[in-house]
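QUALITY CONTROL LOG
STEP: pairwise intake check
CHECKER ROLE: data steward
CRITERIA: each record must contain a sequence immediately followed by its structure tokens, with no blank fields

ENTRY 1 OF 2
RESULT FIELD BELOW
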Amino acid sequence: MNILKSLWIFVLIGFLAGCAPMTTDTSFKAVDLSGKLGTGYKQKVDNALIILDASSSMYDRENCNQKIVEAKNVVLNMNDTLPPLKMKAGLHVFGPSLGANMEDSNLIYGMSDYVAEDLAAAVKSVDVSGMTPLAKPLLKSVDDLKDSKGQIAVIVISDGMDTYNQSPVEAAEALKNAYGDRVCIYTVLVGDSPVGQKVMEDIAAAGKCGFATTAAAVSTSQGMADFVEQVFFEKEAVKPVAPPPVAEKTITMDLKVLFDFDKDTIRPRAEDELDEFAAFMKQHPKTTAVLEGHTDNYGSEAYNEGLSLRRADSVKKYIVGKFAIDPARLTTKGYGYSRPVATNKTSEGRQQNRRVVAVISVTIKE
């Protein structure tokens, strides 16, 4: 292992020789997304864990391009684009040292309350070195997130190359199994390796609710703004607008038909009131009515009960015959002289008691 480590150090020094060091991107102008919160969008992430590849494969000797700088710029630009969200954040780096363990993987920031300045300082401290055990930080993330509450976004930034002897996809599946629907995995590919692209896409797919993108896609201000919006925000559910209250009113139609002594025939002067009552029933086809027949107290109880019912039936026959009202909508009852409305000691009182009455009420929208 010591021979392998010494050889790796020698090769890395050869990679770096002859190339001017790259610096962070100072031309990036972050889009201000703070206005989106509360205006149709809400925060959906309570914990953000960034996994940053700082291994030796992140140095591209052929193009004299340190991919680690591009990867760090992704995190720094995302950090600048993020509004001050209330969440926990962490930075997990793998391959960060030339120490005894070339497969190192450590949480160097967090999990703690998100502070943009602290995250930026942690990112800037990272240097390229070591192997690429991409599975290790994914597995270690299970422990990194053990105290987390709420929804989790795991963002992996790597070239997906030289992933050593463990499957990072299986590690991503283990992370998903540990936190279920709470966690979504997002990957950002640095470089253009087809092999690395496939690895990063498969890692994102293992999360089932994240997605894979590239450093090139998020290098622009709008590209990064779109990425941050998709990872950290979600549209608020549109509250249904309650329809304005509909004013209603109840219409009541009274019927009172008077009869001659010992008669059950309709008097001509009662026809106008009967016609109005029937027209109301015609206009409101769901209404029904109970026709109640009554008498004065002349004669026996049994006779008057029969007479009162015949009077109610007479009114029903008139309404059904003239206006074709469904007979089932009209019920008749005879009460005899049991329910007087006036005294039976006078002719005027007895006339008021010889009657058929009905009441219909219907509620309509104004």
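ENTRY 2 OF 2
RESULT FIELD BELOW
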Amino acid sequence: MNPPLLEVSNLQVEFDTYGGTVKAVRGVDFTVEEGRTLAIVGESGCGKSVTVQALMGLIPMPPGRIMGGSAKLRGIEILGRKTVEGREVRGAEIGMIFQDPMSSLNPTMTIGDQIAEPLQVHRGYSHRQAMARAVELLELVRIPEAARRAAQYPFEFSGGMLQRAMIAMAISCKPTLLIADEPTTALDVTIQAQILDLLKDLQAETGMAIILITHDLGVVARMADAVAVMYAGKVVEAGSVDDVFYRSSHPYTLGLKQAMPTNKRDAVQKLMPIEGSPPDLFAPPVGCGYCPRCPHAMSVCATQPPLPIPVADAHYARCWLHHAQAPHSVPGIYYGDGHD
């Protein structure tokens, strides 16, 4: 098998605040394969965005700091580095689409200039060459009258068009990895579908890998090849999209699914919210972070952090329910094909 494009191991990020130290990311592990899409799923505040910002070098230091871990792009460490093999990591090797394009784009620059700038900085294009390419990129992301639109400012674009312009900027230098941080959150359902289809089409054309950060399981089912479920700064379950959706092995993943509405007409389903709140990361729990909210918690869950336990090939869960000495099986939890 080919090595993964990106391999993240035991990533730890903290922030100093007036109230104390927030342990935002507490040992995250995942891999991204060439040309594939990894979805990172979880509630707000679980560490999804901080994880990818650390990879991009966007963590302000201070108050933030990377306490440990590794992130290797094609086997080369990128944490704390600006360049890899002569190419800048941010913008050239890894592109990023932010959640709110209106606050991420410069209101004093035209859309064309903002798309052209990375080409001038990272690829050495002249202004004329970069502007011509900017128009081509706007056409690629299906913005009509691209040449006229390139001369306009962000306030003249709708929300969906702004997100397309940001995608054009992110892919301008042909990155090998594109990070999309909740790219459809502020958009209506029809525009969401168009943006997701656009990302899939661009991935098919360019072969880039995608990390998709979201809390929408419907988006995950539509886009992802693999899924990492995060809770309280850790990945609690990881596997293929089929593993996570149809063979869920962690109570938190099961809870997310039970809280998701279905569009099946013949299904009679009562939505089951997850009671309680995520833990305080100023003082993270000693054991499993999900323990206070888990309906199947055992005494060991409160005192010992669970290790990742393999359930199947490339599918694992951090949960004591999978330990050989767990007292019982929980309905709805997948334990592996050999489990009685």
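INTAKE CHECK: passed for both entries
DESCRIPTIVE NOTE, ENTRY 2: The radius of gyration is 21 Å.
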